[in-house]
């Protein structure tokens, strides 16, 4: 009688343990599936989806060695999914030759009304500085530069330095000619263009 009772208790314990094990397996599978929905690989770079309040962000981080031989970590946050950012790039690879100063030169005409203009240009400058690329701001137009007492920089008058020209145009695209990087912006797609430039800089590095 006692053996039957003990066997019954053992079966109940085994059933409970099996049930708990099943719950754990389901939880692990669901957790893994959830993570897979919130991460993806683009051109060998592993991104995770994150949210800042109502803003969807795409996060990638990497390590690099600075001029002082120390290792630094950089966190890249994009607002546009790199898999669907179709801004075209042509002409070669992006490469910033150190210790030359790089310039971000802007023609504000046509870009002043763009909602994300300041965020995009400020983000590009921050991206370069955080990656220890010496960078300065400038203007493309000679007269505007003089009126605002800023440097007048174009690809033509600074051929030895990397120059990024950002201006309004008929098509959002990036063209590369040696040290000259022209970011043409149509329909205020300045954030898409700048994010594509940042991403391509990492891929080419």
Describe the structure concisely for a colleague.
With 205 residues, this protein is an alpha/beta fold. It contains 4 helices and 10 strands, in the order H-E-E-E-E-E-E-H-E-H-E-E-E-H.
SSE succession: HEEEEEEHEHEEEH
SS-based class: alpha/beta
Using the coordinates above, name the CATH class of the largest domain. Alpha Beta
Using only C-alpha atoms, the radius of gyration works out to 26 Å
Percent in helix: 25-40%
The number of distinct helices, counting runs of at least 4 residues, comes to 4
List the helices and strands and how they pair.
Layout: H1 2-37, E1 39-42, E2 45-52, E3 55-65, E4 71-78, E5 88-90, E6 102-106, H2 117-130, E7 135-139, H3 142-147, E8 163-168, E9 173-177, E10 180-185, H4 190-204
Structural features, described:
The structure is a single chain. The chain has 205 residues and is α/β, with parallel strands linked by helices. Helices cover 35% and strands 30% of the residues. It has two domains: 1-37; 86-204, Rossmann fold, CATH 3.40.50. A six-stranded mixed beta sheet has the order 5-9-10-8-6-7. A four-stranded antiparallel beta sheet has the order 1-2-3-4. The protein is elongated, with a radius of gyration of 26 Å.
